[in-house]
Amino acid sequence: MTDTPVEESLFQIIHCFHQYAAREGDVETLSLKELKALLLDNVPRFMEGLGRKEPYYILELFRAADKNKDDQICFDEFLYVLGKLAKDYHLQYHRQLCAYHCARHNLY
């Protein structure tokens, strides 16, 4: 039986986390540098919006995700980052639906 699209997506997220975590130090955690590379390489549209490429944004995201304040992001803490991504993409989805609906019904 083949994986469903959601199962494949989850595997890809986990694989991506470990690819970047393995770049330096602990292979089970992301440093600030590794998190920045992961985000810039893998979610460029998210990073383009709202000044997210600015160093302060990435640092604040890292600090918010680092719940135990050990200057590393474990996978459980990375789930916070994924939540931010999912919320942003969900908002974009609704904006696109609204724009489509408004254009279709001449509401502009």
CATH domain fold name: Recoverin, domain 1
Biggest beta sheet summary? 2 strands, antiparallel
CATH architecture: Orthogonal Bundle
**Count of separate structural domains:** 1
CATH class: Mainly Alpha
Strand composition percent: under 5%
H and E string = HEHHHEH
The N- and C-terminal alpha carbons lie at a distance of: 47 Å
- What topology, given as strand order, has the largest sheet? 1-2
**Gyration radius, rounded:** 17 Å
Indicate the structural class.
mainly alpha
State the oligomer: single chain
- pLDDT averaged residue by residue: 90
Shape category: globular
Strand tally, please?
A: 2
Low-confidence stretches: none
Count of DSSP-assigned helices: 5
Question: What's the CATH H-level homologous superfamily?
Answer: EF-hand
Estimated helix fraction: 55-70%
Structure at a glance:
With 108 residues, this protein is mostly helical.
Can you tell me about this structure?
- The structure is a single chain.
- A two-stranded antiparallel sheet has the order 1-2.
- With 108 residues, the protein is mainly α.
- The model has no long low-confidence stretch (mean pLDDT 90).
- Helix 1 (5-21) packs across helix 2 and helix 4 packs across helix 5 (75-104).
- It has one domain (5-105): Orthogonal Bundle (Recoverin, domain 1).
- It has helices spanning 5-21, 32-42, 44-48, 55-65, 75-104; strands at residues 29-30, 73-74.
- The N and C termini lie far apart (47 Å).
- The longest helix is centred in the last third of the chain and has 30 residues, at 75-104.
